[in-house]
């Protein structure tokens, strides 16, 4: 059974029908026990499909967390660790994270810390988690309003990305993941732009290939991996800004705006193409002029900054090349004005 990707000697990534890979993969290993972790939405929409395809018995122990980013916290971890304790999981057991990025990040963190680390696999069920969150070995939770600040790097033993789960994913969540696929296209594979409306196994493979290549070259984010933050400096600030309003944006909606603004602010050669692509898939979001001071404040807290300067990571002219650009406040203001004036760009 050949994996589509081998991210690490011990982490295989399988893309496509998991019935063709998962049962044999599991049978070849001799885990003492299995614990499924999922959320309330996936328990309803994904678990029945997973039982059917994985051949695991329906009485397999499962822990179900409430769906949503607000649950990605230490209290939920405690509930999961408690389930591990109640089921007497030893270090030879396996945790299966069935869900989006929240389940994967939190479940990975709980497994990586339980008894100093037990095996886990990711079975991503959102487009975002198939092409991004489940790949790369970052696990963790939010803490005191700060996203992903507590966590560890720990590769899953395997990832099974099966597009079947996308059938029940709400359209807005699907589009949110699309922003990461667009990001992968501009980082290293423009052909992905033709796949956006049809994310089948072949398209997932192309998108995952971009992330795998970047992570393999820079597993611990010392350089090139920053490329995956394209659109995320300004995008995160926009996401946080709208979080405090009555019309929050999805991560992908914010990142799509972030890619447009960052490309424009950096004077990137492909700015028009980035703009056209994002405009095709995402509605224009009115950004009030009054938002600028708060956005600037949020940008100054970005993890990539060094010595007080706000830094953005952009793709260079060559595929898989990184440009680090400093952003000053005037440039941010100009980019916001540009975005506001060009709704159909
Ligand atoms: N580890 C990493 O490298 C990495 C990278 C990117 C993002 N992330 C994290 O991922 C999280 C976002 O992931 P997400 O967008 O998958 O969010 P999510 O896990 O919250 O899933 C989005 C929503 O879709 C529901 N859902 C999931 N699969 C479904 C399906 N197949 N059918 C119906 N409903 C379904 C979920 O219950 C949830 O309500 C964030 O916490 C982010 O920090 C991590
Ligand atoms: Zn992202």
Topology at a glance:
Layout: E1 5-8, E2 11-15, H1 22-27, E3 34-39, H2 40-45, H3 47-54, E4 62-65, H4 74-86, E5 94-99, H5 101-113, E6 119-124, H6 127-133, E7 138-143, E8 146-153, E9 158-161, H7 171-188, H8 201-217, H9 232-243, H10 251-266, H11 271-281, H12 292-299, E10 310-315, E11 322-327, H13 329-341
Parallel strand pairs: 2-9, 3-4, 3-5, 5-6, 6-9
Antiparallel strand pairs: 1-2, 7-8, 10-11
Helix pairs in contact: 4-5, 6-7, 7-8, 7-10, 7-11, 9-10, 9-12, 10-11, 10-13
The structure holds nicotinamide-adenine-dinucleotide and zinc ion.
Residues 180, 232, 251, 255 line the site of zinc ion (ZN).
Describe the protein's architecture and organization:
With 345 residues, this protein is an alpha/beta fold. The chain contains 13 helices and eleven strands. It has helices at 22-27, 40-45, 47-54, 74-86, 101-113, 127-133, 171-188, 201-217, 232-243, 251-266, 271-281, 292-299, 329-341, and strands at 5-8, 11-15, 34-39, 62-65, 94-99, 119-124, 138-143, 146-153, 158-161, 310-315, 322-327. Residues 180, 232, 251, 255 line the site of zinc ion.
Helix content: 40-55%
Give the termini separation.
46 Å
Task: Please state the structural category.
Answer: alpha/beta
Number of helices: 13
The ordered H/E elements are EEHEHHEHEHEHEEEHHHHHHEEH
- Given the C-alpha coordinates, what overall shape results? globular
Low-pLDDT regions: none
Bound ligands, each once: nicotinamide-adenine-dinucleotide, zinc ion
Order of strands, main sheet, comes to 1-2-9-6-5-3-4
What radius of gyration results from the CA coordinates? 20 Å
Task: Please describe the biggest sheet, giving its number of strands, its sense, and whether it closes into a barrel.
Answer: 7 strands, mixed
The overall pLDDT, averaged over residues, is: 95
Strand content of the residues, in percent? 15-25%
By DSSP, the count of extended strands is 11
């Amino acid at each position: 059974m050949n994996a589509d990707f081998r991210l690490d000697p011990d982490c295989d990534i399988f893309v496509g029908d998991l019935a063709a890979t998962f049962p044999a993969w599991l049978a070849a290993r001799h885990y003492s026990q299995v614990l499924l972790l999922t959320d309330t939405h996936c328990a309803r929409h994904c678990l029945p499909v997973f039982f059917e395809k994985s051949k695991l018995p329906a009485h397999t122990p499962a822990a179900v967390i409430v769906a949503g980013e607000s649950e990605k916290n230490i209290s939920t971890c405690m509930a999961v660790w408690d389930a591990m304790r109640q089921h007497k999981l030893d270090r030879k057991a396996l945790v299966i994270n069935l869900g989006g990025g929240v389940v994967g990040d939190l479940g990975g963190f709980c497994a990586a810390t339980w008894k100093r680390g037990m095996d886990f696999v990711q079975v991503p069920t959102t487009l975002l988690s198939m092409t991004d969150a489940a790949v790369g070995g970052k696990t963790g939770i939010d803490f005191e309003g700060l996203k992903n600040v507590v966590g560890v790097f720990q590769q899953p033993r395997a990832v099974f990305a099966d597009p079947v789960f996308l059938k029940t994913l709400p359209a807005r969540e699907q589009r949110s993941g699309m922003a990461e696929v667009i990001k992968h296209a501009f980082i290293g594979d423009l052909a992905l732009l033709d796949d956006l409306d049809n994310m089948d196994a072949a398209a997932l493979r192309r998108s995952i290939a971009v992330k795998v290549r970047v992570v393999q070259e820079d597993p611990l984010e010392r350089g090139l991996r920053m490329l995956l933050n394209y659109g995320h400096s300004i995008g995160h600030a926009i996401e946080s800004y709208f979080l405090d309003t009555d019309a929050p944006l999805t991560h992908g909606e914010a990142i799509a705006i972030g890619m447009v603004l960052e490309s424009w602010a950096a004077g990137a050669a492909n700015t028009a193409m980035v703009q056209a692509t994002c405009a095709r898939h995402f509605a224009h979001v009115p950004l009030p002029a009054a938002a600028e001071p708060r956005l600037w404040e949020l940008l100054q807290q970005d993890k990539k900054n060094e010595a007080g300067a706000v830094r953005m990571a952009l793709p260079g002219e060559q595929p898989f090349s990184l440009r680090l650009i400093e952003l000053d406040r005037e440039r941010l203001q100009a980019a916001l004005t540009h975005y506001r004036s060009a709704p159909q760009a």
